[in-house]
């Protein structure tokens, strides 16, 4: 029998009596103790004297002071989320971004408008001269959505979880094992993270999320089932409350009352709606019609048939719907042809070069996408000083394609290609 006081729409936001109580406190401490080179405790006197602490104070504030707060923003998702966990089986669905990735406040945040980093959970940060250790000073008033303070050991807890086989998520197991070398506590608000290798910008790699120890106190070998519908307390402006869950129909995010960052620079003019409702609408055409009727406040018209064909409507002509095109500072995930180079014949460079010259991207852009997209010069174009300007795409050229295919041993051209 489920805990009725917390059950909403067939789901529970917290523990229920299907799982016996569990306390992993001693297990966690033993795990930390078993890896003394990775989990370290020192004193403020051990901090290097030559650190240059930064706080992003010279950057302009993010957000618009004219933005109004309150109300409900109506959006949609194509399917009800399979879980509210952030890792493990079924956790990497599209809704994870809406309730976690786009909401959670981590240690620092990349400024949305200019080059640079701004405070998140950390008020200050410093990078060691060898750029492998990043030091943080936590905001002393930072709390989770349930009011519990964020503590240094919560970042230690992140490693306990992400390195555990209990999450049944090999990618995280591998990443956290290879990409981090040590985490060190100096006092209740100061700690450091050490990475094993040089990175173009170490803050990208050492910007970890905390894992609230009180929430993950029951983390054990039945984690995927025990935590399937438990929503972790968040450091961000929105949380999912039990009454915001309507099974199969919608999920509503509620703005956190007394959010710790609500009056802080770079946060006070953002995260303005009181509620963000995600209705489940499986069909894009139906969602567009709901948008026309005012049931949804926002619709991405990324496909040409929406931007051109379905846009021939009076709501747009009469100004009730505004359309806009904008480009983000950093490109969205690149779209293209991805090849597995480990298997023949694609392990042959000449085959891959032939394929490159045989692809007519210009025609696809002009006909299928009606000339709107731009072809990127490389998968990593658009990242400022991290982009190699010398890279450029290979042109569509049938003669060059034939030349490379011939070199690879495919000299005869037939109706289905080269053989």
Helices and strands, in N-to-C order?
Answer: EEHEEHEEEEHHEEHHEEEHHHHHHEE
Order of strands across the main sheet:
3-9-10-8-7
> Structural class of the helices, strands and pairings?
alpha+beta
Number of helices: 12
Q: Radius of gyration, rounded?
A: 25 Å
- The residue-averaged pLDDT reads 91
What proportion of the residues is helical, as a percent range? 10-25%
**Percent of residues in β-strands:** 15-25%
Low-confidence blocks of residues:
1-13
Instruction: Compute the number of strand runs.
Output: 15
Largest sheet: 5 strands, mixed
**Form type:** globular
End-to-end separation:
64 Å
Give a summary of the structure in a few sentences.
By secondary structure, the chain is of the alpha+beta class.
Please specify the SSE layout and strand pairing:
Elements: E1 7-8, E2 11-12, H1 25-34, E3 39-41, E4 72-77, H2 95-101, E5 108-110, E6 117-119, E7 122-127, E8 133-138, H3 152-162, H4 170-178, E9 182-187, E10 190-194, H5 202-206, H6 223-226, E11 238-246, E12 250-255, E13 275-280, H7 284-292, H8 304-309, H9 314-317, H10 349-358, H11 361-368, H12 398-407, E14 413-414, E15 417-418
Parallel strand pairs: 3-9, 4-13
Antiparallel strand pairs: 1-2, 5-6, 7-8, 8-10, 9-10, 11-12, 12-13, 14-15
Helix pairs in contact: 10-12
């Amino acid at each position: 029998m489920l805990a009725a006081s917390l059950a909403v729409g067939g789901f529970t936001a917290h523990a229920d009596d299907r799982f016996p109580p569990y306390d992993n406190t001693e297990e966690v401490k033993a795990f930390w103790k078993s890896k003394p080179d990775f989990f370290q405790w020192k004193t403020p006197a051990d901090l290097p004297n030559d650190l240059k602490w930064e706080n992003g104070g010279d950057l302009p504030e993010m957000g618009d002071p004219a933005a109004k707060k309150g109300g409900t923003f109506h959006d949609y998702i194509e399917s009800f989320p399979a879980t509210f966990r952030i890792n493990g089986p079924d956790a990497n669905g599209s809704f994870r971004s809406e309730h976690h990735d786009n909401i959670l406040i981590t240690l620092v945040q990349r400024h949305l408008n200019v080059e640079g980093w701004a405070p998140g959970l950390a008020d200050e940060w410093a990078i060691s001269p060898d750029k492998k250790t990043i030091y943080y000073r936590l905001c002393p008033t930072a709390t989770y959505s349930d009011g519990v303070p964020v503590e240094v050991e919560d970042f230690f807890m992140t490693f306990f979880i992400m390195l555990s086989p209990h999450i049944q998520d090999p990618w995280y197991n591998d990443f956290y094992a290879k990409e981090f070398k040590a985490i060190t506590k100096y006092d209740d608000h100061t700690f450091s993270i050490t990475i094993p290798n040089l990175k173009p910008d170490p803050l990208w790699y050492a910007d970890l999320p905390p894992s609230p120890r009180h929430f993950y106190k029951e983390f054990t070998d039945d984690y995927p089932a025990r935590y399937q519908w438990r929503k972790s307390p968040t450091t961000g402006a929105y949380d999912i409350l039990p009454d915001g869950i309507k099974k199969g129909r919608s999920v509503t995010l509620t703005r956190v009352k007394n959010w710790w960052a609500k009056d802080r620079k770079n946060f006070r003019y953002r995260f303005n709606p009181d509620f963000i409702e995600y209705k489940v609408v499986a069909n894009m055409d139906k969602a567009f019609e709901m948008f026309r009727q005012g049931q949804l406040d926002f619709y991405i018209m990324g496909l040409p048939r929406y931007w051109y064909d379905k846009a021939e409507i009076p709501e747009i002509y009469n100004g009730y719907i505004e359309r806009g095109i904008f480009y983000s500072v950093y490109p969205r995930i690149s779209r293209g042809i991805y090849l597995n180079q480990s298997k023949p014949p694609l392990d042959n460079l000449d085959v891959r070069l032939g394929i490159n010259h045989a692809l007519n991207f210009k025609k696809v852009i002009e006909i299928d996408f009606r000339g709107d997209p731009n072809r990127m010069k490389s998968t990593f174009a658009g990242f400022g000083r991290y982009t190699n300007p010398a890279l450029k795409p290979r042109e569509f050229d049938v003669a060059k394609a034939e030349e490379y295919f011939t070199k690879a041993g495919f000299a005869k051209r037939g109706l289905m290609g080269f053989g």
